[in-house]
């Protein structure tokens, strides 16, 4: 690994080149151990601003700061070798101007070693995406349900139903034309996601979108059954680790209260010290 990047990792152009080929496998990660688990199986690992809700207990992603994204980005970076790491730009860190977006994206890349950032928004962000990509910042775009706009949408609703489909289509075309290397389509009707995938030249990464997308992404804690606060329809639970963890913690608490833990095999005898001064097993 190089000082600021992942020497053997997939690159944004390599991800773009997968358009229409084998589906791209993408998951979120926020910590080193989870990054190590997902890396061998994923093409893209997103340090999503969902970290605010999933790990920090925030009610939405709006309270996530640049410092939080950088800290989690650094942790994830230590666990990756192969997958492309993308770090989310948090609410308020890029919308003001292209210059603000560049300043903060450059900081994220320099301090985390990520090769790309993700930002939410379509036509309104096209100029910023053009500015960033023209200055060495690869951008993954995100249209459809963009959670940072939850207040403007009035909730986490499906976007692009009926006549609204044309708006989402225009958003996707605008970010592709502006130079994004891939675009996340979140919570849009399946036929619309399919149509956008056919029309745009860059890979579409679906979440609550369509199997026709060029790739899929889920929040890793959702698909592992670790985050139970809300269960969107688009999440398939591949495990119930939350239940397993809860049962293990209950068993530990019971054994401590009953004096059954620690047992003989978990405590130390009074063997003499070794020559080097360390404690013998
Ligand atoms: O923050 C996040 O985890 C995301 C994905 C759900 C796409 O933006």
Automatic annotation (TrEMBL):
Q: What class of enzyme is it?
A: transferase
Q: Which reaction does it catalyse?
A: (6R)-5,10-methylene-5,6,7,8-tetrahydrofolate + 3-methyl-2-oxobutanoate + H2O = 2-dehydropantoate + (6S)-5,6,7,8-tetrahydrofolate
Gene Ontology terms: biological process: methylation; pantothenate biosynthetic process
Looking at the keywords, is Metal-binding present?
yes
Residue numbers binding 3-methyl-2-oxobutanoate: 49-50, 88, 118
EC assignment: 2.1.2.11
Keyword Cell wall biogenesis/degradation in annotation: no
Q: Which GO terms describe its cellular component?
A: cytoplasm
* Localization terms from the record: Cytoplasm
Q: Which residues bind Mg(2+)?
A: 49, 88, 120
Can you tell me which residues form the catalytic site?
186
**Cofactor(s), by name:** Mg(2+)
Query: What are this entry's molecular-function GO terms?
Result: 3-methyl-2-oxobutanoate hydroxymethyltransferase activity; magnesium ion binding; methyltransferase activity
Pathway assignment: Cofactor biosynthesis; (R)-pantothenate biosynthesis; (R)-pantoate from 3-methyl-2-oxobutanoate: step 1/2
How this chain assembles, per its entry, is: Homodecamer; pentamer of dimers.
Q: What does this protein do?
A: Catalyzes the reversible reaction in which hydroxymethyl group from 5,10-methylenetetrahydrofolate is transferred onto alpha-ketoisovalerate to form ketopantoate.
So what family is this one in? Answer: Belongs to the PanB family.
Protein known as: 3-methyl-2-oxobutanoate hydroxymethyltransferase
Q: Which organism is it from?
A: Mesorhizobium delmotii
Species lineage: Bacteria, Pseudomonadati, Pseudomonadota, Alphaproteobacteria, Hyphomicrobiales
Q: Which gene encodes it?
A: panB
């Amino acid at each position: 690994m190089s000082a600021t990047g992942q020497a053997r990792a997939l690159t944004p152009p390599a991800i773009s080149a997968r358009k229409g080929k084998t589906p791209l496998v993408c998951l979120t990660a926020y910590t080193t151990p989870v990054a190590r688990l997902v890396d061998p199986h994923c093409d893209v690992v997103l340090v999503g601003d969902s970290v605010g809700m999933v790990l920090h207990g925030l009610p939405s992603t709006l309270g996530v700061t640049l410092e939080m994204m950088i800290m989690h980005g650094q942790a994830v970076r230590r666990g990756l070798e192969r997958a492309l790491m993308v770090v989310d730009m948090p609410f308020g860190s890029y919308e003001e101007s292209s210059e603000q977006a560049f300043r903060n994206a450059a900081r994220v890349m320099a301090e985390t070693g990520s090769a790309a950032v993700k930002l939410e928004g379509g036509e309104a962000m096209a100029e910023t995406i053009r500015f960033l990509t023209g200055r060495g910042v690869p951008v993954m775009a995100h249209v459809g349900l963009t959670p940072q706009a939850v207040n403007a949408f009035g909730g986490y609703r499906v976007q692009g139903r009926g006549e609204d489909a044309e708006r989402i289509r225009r958003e996707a075309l605008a970010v592709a034309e502006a130079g994004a290397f891939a675009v996340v389509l979140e919570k849009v009707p399946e036929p619309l996601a399919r149509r956008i995938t056919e029309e745009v030249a860059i890979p579409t990464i679906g979440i609550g979108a369509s199997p026709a997308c060029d790739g899929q992404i889920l929040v890793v804690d959702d698909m592992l059954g670790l985050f139970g606060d809300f269960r969107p329809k688009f999440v398939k639970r591949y495990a119930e680790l939350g239940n397993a963890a809860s049962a293990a913690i209950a068993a530990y608490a019971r054994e401590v209260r009953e004096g059954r833990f620690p047992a003989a095999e978990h405590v130390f005898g009074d063997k003499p010290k070794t020559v080097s001064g360390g404690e013998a097993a």
